[in-house]
Amino acid sequence: MPMEKITFANQLLQYLITGLTVGSTYAMVAIGFNIIYNVTEIINLAQGEFVMLGGLVMVFLHVAAGLPIVLAFPLTVIIVTLVGMLLDRLAIRPIRQPSVLTLIIATIAASIIIKGIAMFIWGKDPFDLPAFSGRHPIHFLGAVIQPQYFWIIGFLIVIVIFLTLFFEKTIIGKAMSACADNPGAASLVGINVKRMILLSFALSAAIGAVAGITITPISLMEYDRGAMLAIKGFGAVVLGGLGSFPGAILGGLILGTIESFGAGLIHSGYKDAFALIVLLGALFLRPSGLLGSIEVSKFKRF
Amino acid sequence: MLRIRKLPIIIFALFIIVFPLVSRLIPAIQNYPDLMIFAGIYSLITIGLSLLMGYAGQISLGQAAFYGIGAYVSAILTATYGLNPWFCMVIGMIVAAIVAVLVGVPSLKLKGHYLAMATLAFGIIVFIIFNEEVEWTGGPDGMSGIPGLSLFGFAFDSVEKYYYLVWFFVFSVFVFTINVIQSRTGRALRAIHSSEAASSAMGINVSRFKVVVFVYSAILASLAGSLYAYYLNFINPSTFDLFFSIKLLIMIALGGMHDIWGAIIGAFLITFLSFEWLHFFEEFEVIVYGVILLLVIIFLPQGMVGIPKILKGLFNKKVSNG
Known about the structure:
The structure holds two protein chains of two kinds. By secondary structure, chain A is mostly helical.
């Protein structure tokens, strides 16, 4: 219905829906940050590269190689998960004197290596991926909703349920939580801390891959998107409180919404700046985040 | 590194003075003075960053922003408003210092990765401003028509003249910084790096020192940015992007972040790598940079300046074994 008059209220609703969708992707990146942070206290700046790889590997398997989605999707997640495990084995574990400085530098190094290799494989052009269930938009109160939006939000919900069950019901999940609380004590009771760190990188790469696969049909994907996704995901982490999973989701959704309203109402050229200004504001005013606690942060090594 | 010996500085200064005269005679390295202007400009930034990271232990991933502020303030005030370039250079440093205080005071209270991310976000915001404020900065196309530098009628209008000008600045800053390192301030900085709690118990005003060093590093980056703008007479935002901040980090890590010589060695190596030796890789040089950075962090945490120490260690081991 192209002739229908679009009111200001319709427009606001549109920004909100778009913001929540993009925010769901930021939330997934933020969850990935938190999984690794909770086990290792490392901020993995290569987190955004997992998202980029997820999108581009999926494009390769589904569009170029012609595999059906049901096959290409899990295969992509497995490939990116392996990259995440390699990251731990090749960049993080070999460091002999870990400190905030060296670990951050190592993840930056890894992220530019991954980015460079992606540029080598896929070139500089952005790639499109067909939407999972077509591109016939649904009209709702004057706003346009792409069917893909439901897939993104749906996968966020699936990830949350999966992680909740994993950390609360399984032995491995509980072991990982133990490493987060006290790695020394965890290894005393027989938990293989190194394996848990590897697992945290694998898990967080897998979630990054899902974020990349689901967002690509909406925003396309190219080799150099990782850094911005990582820093916005980190913005969501800080907004919600470092280490807190509900905080990551809340932070991601708020950040996506602010960005969408800012770009729509104020200045679209500053789209990326809004999220960063929120990040700075959150850091300066309330570094423990909305749902984080200052008491907990005092027990952290870094 | 408490004592910094004078002899290497004098030898290095002689090398810098003689180099253009020698390079003129050897065709293969005739363009090296031009590269060494960039090495000098980068050295100005890395000296400040080395003080901040190696001595005060704070990470900045937004140093390109101060470099850009120096370049853009100089470019806008000279090209658009016709002010004196030297005066604009000073204004650039003042602007960078004010911005550094505004960003530094709240960020430096944070520790570890928070500071890294705050400066990272700050750097990207400034980069977006350079791109978006087209009326002021010319947007992604950049600005041209920036005048060169001259003093009392003497124009620094050739590569060689500009080379000596840049390296005059580098040596002044280098010597000043070394004096700072060997003073009370330098000892305070090293104390902060070892333990913030202990140094504040000793009566060191930890957050003030950190802010002062951050501001100093911003002023040096701004000075470097002005020198860059007056040398090329043209600037655009891509020079001041996130990757440049990362490149600065690579310079510091490669040269060695706990020694001020590392700042200069790193700036030299990365300048020559990116302008001369990595041409073969074209834009895939980022992979090489990533690999270099990773290898240095894993196998050479002290950077290039740590190599003599490692060799000495190996030698001593051999002697004692034999």
